[in-house]
Automatic annotation (TrEMBL):
Transmembrane segments: none annotated. SUPFAM superfamilies: Type III secretory system chaperone-like. It comes from the Bacteria. This is Tir chaperone protein (CesT). It comes from Pandoraea pulmonicola. GO terms for biological process: protein secretion by the type III secretion system.
Length: 154
């Protein structure tokens, strides 16, 4: 029943944003590329009644980039407990830095998912890459419609 809800939500989101047909793979993940190169995903976990947004961060192995991502991981580490903001982590298998945020089912609909994904991707790409003293909240007026920025579904 829960997978039906998330599958329907994903299909409706794809249709509403003009992306096309979206679906979860056998692992419960839908992967897509934003702005021509940023890999993002929506993940459904069967024993957890939530949807997780994931975005690979452009941190490389250069010491300064790693230091920035590590400082953001520490700074955002408790955000996922409150559930109201993204967090940063490092995939133990690939070593890739990722931003993630969980969305509770009770609050999800197509409009909320679209806005949450837009905010999330912009946060990951803008806020994390800005110098610490230049960071500010994302201006809602500058937010683009999320579906316009998805270049392909993987």
């Amino acid at each position: 029943m829960t997978l039906d809800f998330y599958g329907r939500l994903l299909r409706e989101f794809g249709a509403a944003t003009g992306i096309g047909r979206l679906s979860f793979n056998d692992d419960g993940v839908c992967v897509f590329v934003v702005d021509g190169g940023v890999h993002c995903a929506l993940a459904y976990i069967a024993n957890d009644d939530s949807l997780t947004m994931l975005c690979e961060l452009p941190c490389d192995d250069a010491p300064l980039a790693n230091d920035l991502c590590l400082s953001k991981m520490v700074e955002t580490s408790l955000n996922s407990l409150a559930g109201d903001a993204p967090s940063v982590g490092r995939d133990p298998i690939s070593g890739a830095w990722i931003a993630y945020r969980r969305l509770a089912r009770h609050a999800l609909n197509v409009e909320m998912l679209s806005e949450a994904l837009s905010e999330f991707v912009l946060w990951a790409l803008q806020k994390l890459n800005a110098p610490v003293d230049a960071q500010s909240d994302i201006d809602r007026a500058d937010r683009r419609v999320f579906g316009e920025n998805i270049t392909r579904v993987v």
